[in-house]
From TrEMBL:
It comes from Thermus scotoductus. GO terms for cellular component: cytoplasm. The keyword Zinc-finger applies. Transmembrane segments: none annotated. This is Molecular chaperone DnaJ. GO terms for biological process: protein refolding. A zinc finger (CR-type) spans 1-52. InterPro entries: DnaJ_C, HSP40/DnaJ_pept-bd, HSP_DnaJ_Cys-rich_dom, HSP_DnaJ_Cys-rich_dom_sf. Signal peptide: none annotated. Keywords: Metal-binding, Zinc, Zinc-finger. The lineage of its organism: Bacteria, Thermotogati, Deinococcota, Deinococci, Thermales.
């Protein structure tokens, strides 16, 4: 090459105040100091080829989304050796549980009778179903916290928080309506008279 194997080209220039020497990368060997007699058909003279590899990545317990995990030696080739691969963590949503930091949230739907009289249910946990007692008189939005059933974090483990959501029936049988009206009368709650909404809908259809 033009550089004589040094990888750089020296040029002497004469200026107004004397001469000076400049150095630049050899345009022929691109700084390599040598030329290939024949171009490699695989890398096409670039000296490297791209290929895919599988890397085993260890994910510590309780990792947050968007955290970066470093995998040494799986990056691009560099003069000092291959660089590192950085993996950004994306967490697939759980079908039943929501995440709040190290804590998990489960939304439990129960009926009016279960809320009023109490019940025993099973809620999903990371290691399997967990029994839970719902006491009588439980209201909508009440939270039951199960310590140690959440995600691990340095120094401990989060909780599973069960949020109660009352499920109000929309299609009641005549017998169920009769029982509810009897209950409302017993506790002194005022409800719409029987057939009121049906008559109201009929009025607007006219």
């Amino acid at each position: 090459p033009t550089c004589g194997g040094r990888g750089v080209v020296e040029t002497y220039r004469q200026g107004l105040f004397g001469g000076f020497l400049t150095r630049s990368t050899c345009p022929h060997c691109k700084g390599q100091g040598h030329l290939l007699a024949e171009t490699c058909p695989v890398c096409r003279g670039r000296g490297r080829v791209a290929r895919e590899e599988r890397a085993r990545v260890r994910i510590p317990p309780g990792m947050d989304e968007n955290r970066l995990l470093r995998v040494p030696g799986y990056g691009n080739l560099a003069p000092g050796g291959p660089g590192d691969l950085y993996v950004r963590l994306k967490i697939r949503p759980h079908p039943h549980l929501e995440r709040e930091g190290p804590h998990l949230v489960y939304r439990l739907k129960i009926g009016l009778a279960q809320a009023a009289l109490g019940t025993r249910v099973e809620v999903p946990g990371l290691s399997g179903p967990i029994p839970l007692e719902i006491p009588p008189g439980t209201g909508h939005g009440e939270v039951f916290e199960l310590p140690g059933e959440g995600l691990p974090y340095p120094g401990g483990r989060g909780a599973l928080r069960v949020v109660v959501e009352l499920s109000v029936p929309k299609n009641l049988s005549p017998k169920a309506k009769e029982l509810l009206r009897a209950y409302a009368k017993e506790v002194g709650e005022e409800v719409a008279p029987e057939g009121f909404f049906e008559r109201l809908r009929g009025f607007f259809r006219k």
